[in-house]
Amino acid sequence: MTQDVVIKAQNLDLTFQTNDGPVHALKDINLDINKGDFVSFIGPSGCGKTTFLRTIAALENPTAGSITVNGMTAEEARKSRAYGYVFQAAGLYPWRTISGNIKLPLEIMGFDKAEQQQRVERVLELVELTGFGNKFPWQLSGGMQQRASIARALAFDADILLMDEPFGALDEIVRDHLNEQLLKLWARTNKTIGFVTHSIPEAVYLSTKIVVMSPRPGRIADVIESTLPRERPLDIRDTPEFLEIAHRVREGLRAGHAYD
Amino acid sequence: MRNILPILAVVFAMIIAWYAGAFMMNKKWTYDQANRAGVELTLSEVFADTMAQPRPVLPAPHQVAVNFWETTVEKKITSRRSLVFHGWITLKATLTGFILGTIIGTLLAVGIVYSRVMDMSILPWAIISQTVPIVAIAPMIVVLSNSVGIEGHLVPKTIISAYLSFFPVLVSMIKGLRSPDRMQLDLLRTWGAGKSQTFWKLRLPGSMPFFFAAVKIAIAASLVGAIVGELPMSGSGGLGARMLVGSQYGEPLLIWSALAAAALLAAVLIFIVGTIQTITLKRMGMAQ
């Protein structure tokens, strides 16, 4: 199978210098992410999953090893708008409408007005928020705000979507719904998605590849290729296949975690 | 209406306390006069007298009101006895000082937020500047600006006014410009935004609530600065000069009605700033 590798990490190491001494956040990370993959990073807090995602986005610099995105360095990839980033909080500007928020990256990147408007309409439709463009963020529910922030990350057509616990602050019901929507969106846009989570069902339900990480120092404990079909109704979560993968993830987490 | 009732209740209580105070403080003079004349006064006569003395220790509210009326509505506004005339002089100095102070405060805040050197060098001096009593500095500024050949009184008053008003703006704007959190800054970084884009699209709009909170304090401080600036130069006119004249000539009514005019001016200015704040924040979608 020869697929295009879009994100490649080789012997990646990252140590933070803090006041309490150095913290070894990432140790010897080797990982290939292929085009169109949905990769989840799962692990207890402190395992470096967020740090790894930030390293892909060139928000952190590795102390050793290399990371390439679309064959470029992470920094170059950022400048060529290779990815959209979604944080745990929606981070919408309260003084801008939903449209205004989605236009923000477009303004910064210098799209013309007509194109901006056209793109806003398109991504609002993608996240099922058509008609909400003129609302202010506080007029929307938490789930809708997070969808708007996903729309913002999609607006400039990056091939890669990096999501750092995007639904972590939402309740289970909303979360299920957004997970379903995210899969549909992934199927429609054929993007490569990197997704940080600490929910096992969420990771198994969404991913084609699950990266199990363990803390102190942050490293990869297991990489699980999902055998589930790409088409996934919510009740796939009750099938034996799903439960088997979930079990393997749990095993991986247990093995890597000392419970100290 | 629901908002006005508690305010009226407080005003009412203050007026009662004021009348009581006027009676207590003025009655000594009444009794002295009666003693000298050798007459015995009933309590109601004493009370009536304390309310109508020409030079009371504490004028009764209605005396101030009458004087205020006479010196605003019944005088031509070009007259040097008109409070409108003096109020306008003070207002000019207040507004120029306020605008200057706000601009200086904002610019310094931008410098401090963006430059570590300025953060460490300017901020301590800005704080120290506010520990110096303004009444001590005001006469020096007046004298100095005179000796470097600046004609008129507007410039020194503007400087004093700006000196007082830049500080709240500076402190608030530093806080406001630093209010965007790490995540919002990271987001801008992922989009490759430069420093100026970060400033215009995130830091500046994000600082607006802080700005308006500061500007309300600054406008009041500017008025105080202008009045203090007028105290050492009674010839120049203005509400401060009016107060000085009142105290030099033993005319408490004059002081009190100038005081009332200053309070009224402050209220109007703060109301205007508040209205601009409401409109701006509503337009920005920040007033929920």
Gross CATH architecture of the largest domain in chain B: Orthogonal Bundle
Secondary structure category of chain B: mainly alpha
Residue fraction in strands of chain B: under 5%
**Total count of helical runs of at least 4 residues of chain A:** 8
- Per CATH, the class of the largest domain in chain A reads Alpha Beta
Give the SSE map.
The complex is a heterodimer of chains A (260) and B (288).
Chain A: E1 5-18, E2 21-34, E3 38-42, H1 49-56, E4 64-69, E5 72-73, H2 74-79, E6 83-86, H3 98-109, H4 113-126, H5 142-154, E7 160-164, H6 172-189, E8 192-197, H7 200-206, E9 209-214, E10 219-225, H8 240-256
Parallel strand pairs in A: 3-8, 3-9, 6-7, 7-8
Antiparallel strand pairs in A: 1-2, 1-4, 4-5, 9-10
Chain B: H1 4-37, H2 43-50, H3 61-72, H4 83-114, H5 116-129, H6 134-147, H7 154-177, H8 182-190, H9 195-206, H10 208-230, H11 239-248, H12 252-283
Helix pairs in contact in B: 1-2, 3-12, 4-5, 4-7, 4-10, 4-11, 6-7, 7-10, 10-12, 11-12
